[in-house]
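User: I'm putting together notes for a lab meeting next week and I want to include a structural view of one of the chains we've been expressing. I don't have a solved structure, so I'd like a prediction I can at least talk through. The sequence is below, exactly as it appears in our construct file.
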Amino acid sequence: MNQPSNNNPSSNVAEVDLEPIVRAALEEAKALGVDEAEVAASHDLGLAATARLGDVENLEYNRDHGIAVTVYRNKRRGSASTSETSTDAVREVVRKACSFATYTAEDKHAGLADADLLCRDLIDLDLDHPWDIDATAAIELAIRCEAAGLDVDRRLKNSEGATVAQNRGLRAYGNSHGFFGQFAKTSHSITCALLAEQNGEMQRDYHYTAARSPDELESAEAVGREAARRTIARLGAQKLPTQQAPVLFVPELARGFIGHAVSALSGGAQYRKASFLLNARGERLFPDFVDITERPHIAGGMASAAYDDEGVGTWDRGLVTAGSIEDYVLSSYSARRLGLETTANAGGAQNLVVSSNGADLESLIAEMGTGLIVEELIGQGVNGVTGDYSRGAAGHWVENGEIQFPVHEVTIAGTLRDLYSRIERIGDDRDLRGGIRCGSLLIGEMTIAGS
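Assistant: Thanks for the context. Below is the predicted structure for the 451-residue chain, given as structure tokens.
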């Protein structure tokens, strides 16, 4: 996938060092007499090229940098940020943060993470893989991607375009406990969205590939052809009568379905008492074959991190074991609010791996026999407080283990606690493009509301 180039924008990231900026901000905070301070700085460079119907539609280059400062004085917290990194700008943002701390309420839980929990081993997690591609090559790749898709079938009459994007960023964090960490990371993607028409009916679908390394991306032509296959497969979509039936989520949607439980187990939801899994540690939520393990040190993982946003060192741990909730997702602040200890999740969970007890999507379709494959979800009908779940859906109807016809304009519904207990199979076809690695997921029965 690599393309030769002499003007790749992301190559400049290697020449940047954020440590002097972070340390200057910490020194300024110390001079102003704060009790504690922390500073996060970033520098990003990226390129995105979009082609539509064989021509360039959009070309974007971004160069963003910034600094965020948080100070603590007498258990009062003040924060300020800026996109400027000059000496004067750094001094000004620290002073603003100190000024704001005089107005906020005292909070006994506020403060840095405990010094003895900070990361001591700044391991290289293989997150930095620059893509040597310039604007011309990116445009050519996007055009090839779209063309490969449109060539699949004459019914593909229009396109929303194909986009090739690359990004390289540098992240640094330091605090007044003496911690400093800095690392570079990349993310690259190719996306294609097509429209098909048949007998006056139009359908749309898309496909994408994403990875830290360009060598791990699918080819542009493969992305276009898969987008075409998905779009054509949706032609002739029908409605379903309202019924109870099995539902099978494809991997890219299964990870979001699991994500609702992760959100409910977050420290913020717990201490605000805004979770359908309130005080649920130790409770059985899933069938006993389900384990959800956090593995933050996977080389090249999309959510890998040696330390969290507070500098706390990360480690492998079980979030769900044998179907039971083992722990929460906590930052230092939320942990203090709950009388617990941080789980190194300031900024979110890192690489949650969901266990499997099945094979790939095709095998789960055969095992389901009759039911709905969900390939698209519409709307935001998930209540994190009550656990009520109701989403518009589209996909395919299955009978006798074989796909019969595409489906649209249905709603799938239930309560998350009940739905999680009804999971029968999780495939081994994990989607690696996000922070939750989950395979196809089969629920034994859901309400499908249709015509």
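A couple of points you could mention at the meeting. The chain has a mean pLDDT of 96. The chain has two domains: 9-233, 243-255+357-449.

User: Perfect, that's what I needed.
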